[in-house]
Structures are given as structure tokens and as C-alpha cells.
Amino acid sequence: MITEQSLITLMLAIIIASVAALEIRNLKYATYAYLISSIFLCGIIVSYAFLSRNESLYLWAITCVLIKVIIVPRLLIRYIRMIPQMEHQPVIGLVLSVAVLVLMLTAFYRVFHTYIAFFAPTDAALRAPVRDLLAGACTVFMLGIWTLLSRRDVIKTVIGLVLMENGVHLILLALAPQLKETTMIGILTNVVAVVFILLYLSADIYRIFGTTDSARLSELKR
């Protein structure tokens, strides 16, 4: 039986899988962790559709499965086969990164959950399970930003962007579940286009510099 507690459990699972996608150094396995987080995202959409009796959300969930569970991970895996499997050395080491993440995610969740009325001044945002969903969604979004700031590997940059997009989906689910299906399909289609372009450019970076270090992009100015 799907309950409000199911949404909270799935949200926690998304956060854990997203952290794994960030911290796992093997790019192939990091992509699988992202895939798992996307599966949990689809699970939240289906659960929310059931609880709110909003049948239009099922199409949203199906579209997410097609694009975020099948197409995007397939694009990532296809590109990863052409480059070294291990992530380029990140800015922050593993132990320090995990410690910072635990503190940061705990702090972000508490802040968003406590002051959600400031970020989303609506009556619905103050009630469960929307409040918990929004706090978790904002935490996932900030995790994506942290990935962009702390990682130099181009694949991790792409993963950071799609993690941010996962957070956006959860925020929209909580605040605008009546959003038209065509709008959501358009957003998801844009994600595929962005991922494809970034991976195409990443292939050129690796071909020119022999590395997946995004910091080497500064050399293109010379």
C-alpha cells in the first residue's frame, strides 16, 4: 500500500543514490547510481499520482522512464566506453568530500524543511507530504550544484546537471502537479539535447587533450 511515508522513503533513496553517483570514482558505476536515482524519481511520481489521484502524472512517469532511465544513461555509457573508466582526480578527496556532503546535505534539508514557507510561500508547501518532498527536492538540486563545483571530470559535470534536473522535477511535482504533460515532455526532451551536446563536446576535449579534465578547457582560449 502506497502511503505518504513511501514518498519520504523514496526521497531518502534518491538522495543516497545521488550521493553515490557523485562519489563513485568509476564512471560506469556512477552512471548506474544515477540510473537508480532516476528509477526512484519515477517511483515518487507514480506514488504521488496514486495518492493525489492525478492520472496525468502517470504519463509524466512513463516519459521519465523513457528519457531518464533509458536514453540518458545509455548516452553516458556509450561515451564512457571511449574514455578511461576512472574519474579524473576531483578537487576534493574522497574522505573530505563525504564528510562535507554529510554536513551539507543535513544542513540543507533542515534549512529547507524549517523555512520552506520562505522558499515556497503557499499553503500546500506547509503540509505533508509536500513539505518533505520540497525539502528533499531542494537538497537534491543543491547536490547537483555541488557536483558541478567539486568535480573536474566532464562526465561528472553531466551527472551534476542531470541531478539538478532531478531536483527540478521533484520541485515541480510538489508545487505544480497539474503542469501540462506537453510541458514536461518538452523539458525532458531538452535534457536529452543538452546531454548529447555536452558529451559530443566532451569527446572533442578528450580527442584534443587526451583527458576528461574540464579544467583544460581554459587552454582552448590560447
Notes on the protein architecture:
It is a single chain. By secondary structure, the protein is mostly helical. It has one domain. The protein is 76% helix and 0% strand. The protein has helices at residues 4-23, 27-52, 56-80, 94-114, 116-119, 130-150, 154-175, 181-209. Helix 1 packs parallel to helix 6 (130-150), helix 3 runs parallel beside helix 8 and helix 7 packs antiparallel against helix 8.
Shape: globular
Mean pLDDT value: 82
Total strand segments? 0
Q: How many strands, what sense, and barrel or not for the largest sheet?
A: none
- Count the DSSP helices: 8
* Helix residue percentage: over 70%
How far is it from the N-terminal to the C-terminal residue, by CA?
Answer: 60 Å
* Poorly predicted tracts of residues: none
Q: Round the Cα radius of gyration to an integer and report it.
A: 18 Å
How much beta, percentage-wise?
Answer: under 5%
Please state the oligomeric state of the protein chains shown.
single chain
N-to-C SSE string, H for helix and E for strand: HHHHHHHH
Structural class: mainly alpha
Present the secondary structure layout.
Blueprint: H1 4-23, H2 27-52, H3 56-80, H4 94-114, H5 116-119, H6 130-150, H7 154-175, H8 181-209
Helix pairs in contact: 1-2, 1-6, 2-3, 2-7, 3-8, 4-6, 6-7, 7-8
